[in-house]
Structure formats: C-alpha cells, structure tokens
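anyone seen this seq b4? input:
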Amino acid sequence: MKPIMKIVDIRATTVTVPLEAPLRHANGCHWGRFVRTIVEVETDNGLVGLGEMGGGGESAEAAFRAMKSYLVGHDPARLEEMRFLIANPTASLYNNRTQILAALEFACLDILGQAWGVPVCEILGGRLRDRVPFAAYCFFRYPDPRTGGGEVRTIDQLVEHAGSLTACGAPARWCGFRSPPIPWWSTSSNSPPTRSIRRWT
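predicted toks r here
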C-alpha cells in the first residue's frame, strides 16, 4: 500500500501573458494580455503539484488561501472527498468554486503522477494519442502600441498572419477566422483568403 501523503500548503500566483498585439472582436478590443492563476499544492513529502485557473488577482489568490482551512492535512489522492469539502453540489449553487476545484484537482493529479511515477493520463484511464495537434484562430488585430508590430486589418495581412502560424506548426485547415467583418469565412469555405491559406497545407 502506498503511504498516505498530506497537503501542507497551497499557494496561488497571478500571472499575465502578454499578447503580441491587441485582438479585435465583437465586444471591442482585448486588453492585450491573458490573466491566469498558477496554483501550487505542496505535500508533507516535499512534492509540489501545479494547477491553473483562468483569471486572477487579489480575489483569486485570497480564494485559494481560504481553501487551506479545508485542505491542509488532506490526502491529495482523495479527490472526491476534496470535491465535497469545497464544492459539493448544493453549496456550489451559491458560489463559484468549480474553477477553484478544477485548479486544485489538476495540482493533486500532478502530485499523484509524481508520487506514483506515472503520467497523469495513466491515472485518468490511459493515453489515447502520443501527440496533440495545434490549432490557431486568426483575429483582426491592432498594432502593438509599443512596437507597432502585429497589425492585422486587411485580408492580405490576415493571410500573411495565417502563414506565419502554419510556419509555427498550426495546420492551415485549423486556422479559423473569428472576427468581423468576415465571420462567414472559414477554412471549410472557398473564399479568396481561404484559397490563399491553403497554399500552406
């Protein structure tokens, strides 16, 4: 029987990932960065598992600190028990702990993979594939205010940008158009930009 581990600490850190250029979409302009919360769960045997939650800031970090009173001393392998401790179905009608639970569960699965010497996919039922294809979306974009680069305002610029994405490994058939004024154009159509993008397939 494997020894029981105990959670001794939970830490949360907000990170921002800058975009190359501000994205334009139906709601206006993206503010130029993605915000995430990186969660660290530490056990009494020194293992640290990592999880992630969308969004961040002081309130997100405070929410994870509040979970310590529930989870310090808890066995990270008892995932269902953890779910009922912090996000049971009734209580979750009145709070937003589902994302918090997911980040903590990711971190606990990471710990279990390290402790048991197996990839997490084996804990979850086994690997389905060895590689995961990369997909990309094409947005119209304003230029980066600092460098002036990254602008995509015309169809020619969009086609050029799609070409740069495929050079990074994204198959052209998975480069989708997501921004007005051409929402009906997709890579399954026979539109002029789509025909140009197919040069890279």
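The helical segments are 58-66, 68-71, 79-87, 97-116, 120-123, 155-167, 192-197. The chain has two domains: 7-123, 136-200. kinda curious what u guys think
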